[in-house]
């Protein structure tokens, strides 16, 4: 994760975050989802909570918000069995596409009941979308 770039974008007001969260909150999120977050995503949650940058809204800890990873994931899991082993980290808002992450941190595009690997890690995903 390019923390320096994200921090500069925040300072420039081209990126917005909700604020980092602690271990207890993250553990509670994992318990609700029955999913252990990859270390890179935990670091993201610790530092930023959730992120809006370059027309992307990266879901995180945002209770009662449209960018809450727990609520979005639980809602999408109710709709489709294919996402039971994933968390939804972004909804681009077109063509029913969702961006999901597996327990290894790999990033997948979900569309029309199919998953396609996009990035090998959450950090790679973040680095590409923030530049």
Task: Report a brief summary of the structure.
The chain is built from five helices and seven strands. It is an alpha+beta fold. A hairpin with a 5-residue loop joins strand 5 and strand 6.
Identify the notable features of this structure and list them briefly.
single chain; 131 residues; alpha+beta; four-stranded antiparallel β-sheet; three-stranded antiparallel β-sheet; 5 helices
Radius of gyration: 14 Å
Gap from first CA to last CA:
11 Å
Structural class: alpha+beta
- Give the overall silhouette: globular
Largest beta sheet: strand ordering: 4-5-6-7
Q: Would you identify the regions where 5 or more consecutive residues have pLDDT less than 50?
A: none
Q: What string gives the helices and strands in order?
A: HEHHEEHEEEEH
User: In total, how many beta strands?
Assistant: 7
Number of helices: 5
Mean pLDDT: 92
Strand fraction equals 15-25%
Secondary structure: helix percent: 25-40%
- What can be said about the biggest beta sheet? 4 strands, antiparallel
Explain this structure.
The chain is α+β, with helices and mostly antiparallel strands and 131 residues long. It is 37% helix and 21% strand. It contains 5 helices and 7 strands; from the N terminus they run αβααββαββββα. The chain has helices at 3-11, 23-33, 39-47, 69-79, 122-129, and strands at residues 15-17, 51-53, 56-58, 87-90, 98-101, 107-111, 114-119. The strands form 2 sheets. A 4-stranded antiparallel sheet has the order 4-5-6-7. A hairpin with a 7-residue loop joins strand 4 and strand 5. It starts with a helix and ends with a helix. The model has no long low-confidence stretch (mean pLDDT 92).
């Amino acid at each position: 994760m390019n923390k320096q770039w994200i921090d500069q974008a925040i300072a420039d007001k081209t990126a917005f975050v909700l604020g980092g969260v602690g271990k207890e909150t993250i553990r509670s999120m994992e318990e609700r989802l029955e999913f252990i977050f990859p270390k890179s995503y935990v670091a993201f949650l610790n530092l930023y909570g959730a992120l809006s940058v370059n027309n992307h809204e990266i879901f995180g800890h945002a209770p009662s918000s449209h960018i809450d990873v727990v609520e979005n994931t639980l809602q999408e899991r109710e709709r489709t069995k294919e996402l039971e082993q994933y968390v939804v980290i972004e909804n681009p808002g077109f063509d029913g596409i969702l961006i999901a992450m597996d327990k290894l941190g790999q990033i997948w595009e979900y569309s029309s009941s199919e998953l396609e690997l996009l990035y090998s890690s959450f950090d790679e995903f973040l680095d590409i979308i923030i530049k």
